[in-house]
Write a structure and sequence with these properties.
Layout: H1 2-33, H2 39-59, E1 69-72, E2 84-87, H3 91-103, H4 105-111, E3 124-129, E4 132-137
Antiparallel strand pairs: 1-2, 3-4
Helix pairs in contact: 2-3, 2-4
Length: about 160
């Protein structure tokens, strides 16, 4: 158990250091560009992209069994995500919406110098609960959060799969 805590602690330190480098790089980029970012416009574009992803998620949330549900990557050029759990029938529609957002709203977002962020994600799996696709933790700490074949690996973001 102490080994797991030590590994998780070291991973957390690396994550914080990486985040600091990203922020420092973003600040340097913005100073060199000498342009002011329109934060309200950034927020509006990000909110629009998020609402379009949510619209598709809402349309494809109904399910009967766990096998109906999948985790689909919903990251755009506006920001990274941990993905959404939807009915497998909606995967192509979600991919089309993401592609459209990347080519339009998020391309503008990126060209305006808006910041890009990705949340830390917990390992999860898609399930059908109460007739709706949702997620649940893939493993609890008591079940060992680390894969047995690679004791140094941490669970990844579902969107990366």
């Amino acid at each position: 158990m102490n080994t797991i805590r030590l590994r998780l602690g070291i991973s957390a330190l690396f994550a914080m250091a990486s985040f600091s480098l990203v922020i420092a790089g973003f600040t340097d980029t913005m100073e060199g560009a000498e342009r002011e970012v329109d934060w309200r416009a950034c927020q509006q574009r990000h909110a629009h992209a998020s609402s379009q992803v949510e619209r598709v998620r809402a349309a494809y949330r109904a399910c009967v069994t766990d096998n109906d549900c999948v985790i689909v990557d919903t990251s755009t050029y506006c920001g990274g995500t941990c993905g959404e759990v939807i009915h497998r029938a909606g995967v192509q529609q979600m991919r089309r919406v993401i592609s459209h957002l990347n080519a339009t709203v998020c391309r503008e977002y990126w060209s305006m110098g808006c910041p890009y962020g990705t949340p830390a994600c917990l390992a999860s799996r898609a399930v059908c609960a109460g007739g709706e696709c949702t997620s649940e933790p893939a493993a609890t700490l008591s079940e060992s959060a680390l894969p047995a074949d690679d004791p140094g690996a941490l669970p990844g973001c579902p969107a990366a799969r």
